[in-house]
Amino acid sequence: INGYKNLCQHDQIALMKAGCTEIIILRSVQTYNFERDFWSIVKDSKNPTLIKLDALKPSLRPCIFEAHKRFMAQIGHEWDNNLDILNLLSTIVLFDPNRPNIIHKDMIA
């Protein structure tokens, strides 16, 4: 993304640190099995690792887990095969001028 390249390194790092988790959550819909509620992580073509959605439950606050579960069930299924939407949403998440430690908020906006 040219706009990202034009930012100072400090702002690039601040945006990436703040938005990384959200972008990973958005992108996770690509490997999610919506019928059986698990992610299939391919390490090699013969042995994918299956991670159930419920595996997140012990490590997240209940409200965060439930919000993520709703996201996967309601929204994620519509976007899982649409890379254009995922790329646009990832860009919107990345270029949030309200992130902490941003120097040039006006350029990001």
Question: Would you kindly provide a written description of the structure presented here, covering whatever features stand out?
Answer:
The chain has 109 residues and is mainly alpha-helical. The protein has a single domain, classed as Retinoid X Receptor. Helix content is 52%, strand content 11%. It has 5 helices and 3 strands, in the order H-H-E-E-E-H-H-H. It has helices at 2-5, 9-27, 62-79, 83-94, 105-108, and strands at 32-33, 38-42, 48-52. It has a 3-stranded antiparallel β-sheet, with no helix packed on it. Helix 2 (9-27) runs antiparallel to helix 4. The chain is elongated and about 45 Å long. The two termini are 15 Å apart. The mean pLDDT is 89.
